[in-house]
Design brief:
- InterPro entries: DauR-like, DauR-like_HTH, YheO.
- This is Transcriptional regulator.
- This protein has 218 residues and is α+β, with helices and mostly antiparallel strands.
- Helices cover 45% and strands 18% of the residues.
- It has two domains: 113 residues, Beta-Lactamase (2-Layer Sandwich); 85 residues, no CATH class.
- It has a five-stranded antiparallel beta sheet.
- The two termini are 36 Å apart.
Length: 218
């Protein structure tokens, strides 16, 4: 660890002490990316260990639309045991303006969420609303709007390709992409994909099951 990184150790300590037990701070030396973690405070939050590499630097920081002025603030990820972590990352530069490190702040939101839920339970609840035809119609219109967007996405993913000439693996790959993006969570999308790919709904379901099985094995 060089002197520039060492200057951030008191910063890491004071952040962790200010925000408490559920706040983890991780200091990275990006001149050794394969083992970039050089210092941690409260590392029980995510289990980060000195000698490990970075995880979210590319996807949640450098490629984030919120990345500005050498930092990305308030992005979220889940730990392996399902806890939601609120995170912010600041890049560290040397006097030559080269990025040589990063300071990451990870806050376990579990206690915060539990407290919010408990406080919400103390508030008066809204009484059951009587049936309202106008409200129901608005809900229907909203669902139709979401389906329209989903169908448009499906059309763009499949494009103008002659589906009769597509190989099975090409169709499976399209379905895989849609599954990863959550498109099939929207009602009616299975029918749309079956129609566009000129296959049955049963075949679409079989593709999805095949994809999930491979993901589980992988």
């Amino acid at each position: 660890m060089n002197s520039i990184h060492e200057q951030y150790i008191p910063v890491a300590e004071v952040i962790a002490k200010t925000f408490g037990h559920d706040c983890e701070v991780v200091l990275h030396d990006l001149t050794v990316p394969q083992s970039s973690v050089v210092y941690t405070v409260n590392n029980h939050v995510t289990g980060r260990q000195v000698g490990q590499s970075f995880n979210h630097l590319i996807t949640d920081v450098l490629l984030s639309q919120n990345f500005t002025n050498d930092y990305s603030a308030n992005y979220y990820f889940h730990t392996e045991d399902g806890r939601l972590i609120k995170s912010s990352t600041l890049l560290i530069r040397n006097p030559d303006k080269k990025v040589i490190g990063a300071l990451c702040i990870n806050i376990d939101t579990t206690r915060i969420t539990e407290s919010i839920n408990w406080l919400s339970s103390l508030l008066p609840q809204n009484p059951d609303l009587p049936p309202n035809q106008h409200y129901q119609r608005d809900q229907t219109n909203e669902t139709e709007h979401i389906q329209e967007i989903a169908h448009d996405l499906i059309d763009k993913i499949i494009g103008n390709k002659p589906v009769e000439k597509l190989r099975r693996d090409e169709k499976v790959e399209m379905v895989r992409f849609m599954e990863q993006k959550g498109i099939f969570l929207i009602r009616g999308t299975i029918d749309r994909v079956a129609e566009k790919l000129n296959i049955s709904k049963v075949t679409v379901y079989s593709y999805i099951e095949e994809i999930k099985e491979k993901n589980n094995k992988g």
